[in-house]
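Hey,

Quick one before I head out. I ran the complex with pyridoxine-5'-phosphate overnight. Inputs first:
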Amino acid sequence: MHLRLFINIDHVATIRQARRALEPDPVQAAALCEDAGADGITAHLREDRRHIQDLDVDRLKATLRTPFNLELACTDEMVAIAERLAPHHVTFVPERREEITTEGGLDVTREPERLEAAVRRLKAAGIATSFFIDPVPMMVERSHWMGADAVELHTGRYAERPDDDRSLRALHDAARQAAALGLAVHAGHGLTTANVGAVAAIPEIEELNIGHTIVSNAIYVGIAAAVRTMRAAMDAGRPT
Ligand code: PXP
C-alpha cells in the first residue's frame, strides 16, 4: 500500500504571523509541496488563529490539487467552518491555548456526545473524519464506536524516545487494532527523516502528517527538497 505523505504547512504561517505580513504564504508553499510529490496538505485552524487564518483555509480549498486535511478542535464554530468549506477530511485534535503545539491525543472518552454529533454532521456533509489519539486500545475502540472513519496515531512519544521499544510497539498494536476495526490509520507528530522509517514500516499506516521538520529543513534546502528527502526516508523504511 502506498504510504501517503501529507505536509502540514502551519509553520509557514507561523513565520508570516511573526510580522503580520503577507509572506511567506502557506498557500504558495502548499503548491510547492504538491509539485514536490506531497499526496495532500494539512492545516490546523486554531481557535486563537495563531498561525493559519480563515482566509488561508479558503484559499487552500480553492487551489489545492491534492486532498485537504483540515485539523480542528471539536467546537461548534470549527464544525460550522468545516461544513462550509468541505475539505477532503477533518482531523479532530485537542486544543489548549497555552500549549506550544498539540501535546497529547484527543481524549475521546470526554464529551463523547459532542464528538459523535460532530462526526454525524460532517458525515452528512460528505466529509470524512479522523481523531488524533494516543496509541492506546481504549482510544482506538472508542473512536470506532463513535463513527470516525480514521484515527491519526500520535507519534510524539515515540519521536521523543525512538529507542524505547514500548512506544513503537504501542503504535504497531494500535495500528493493527484500528485496521481490524475497519478504521483507516494515519500517524504523525514529531516525525523527522531520522525517525520516520520505523513508523513507515508499520504496514497498516496509510498516511503520515509531517510539518515542523519540513518547514525547518526548508530554511536550509528549500521546501521542495525537504519534501523529497522526507519521501525518500519514508520509502526507505516501508517494506515493499
Ligand atoms: N498531526 C497532528 C494532529 C498535529 O497536530 C501535528 C502538529 O500540528 C502534526 C501531525 C505534525 O506534527 P509535526 O509538526 O511535529 O510534524
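Residues 8, 10, 44, 71, 91, 93, 101-102, 132, 152, 188-191, 209-213 surround pyridoxine-5'-phosphate (CB under 6 Å).

Talk tomorrow,
K.
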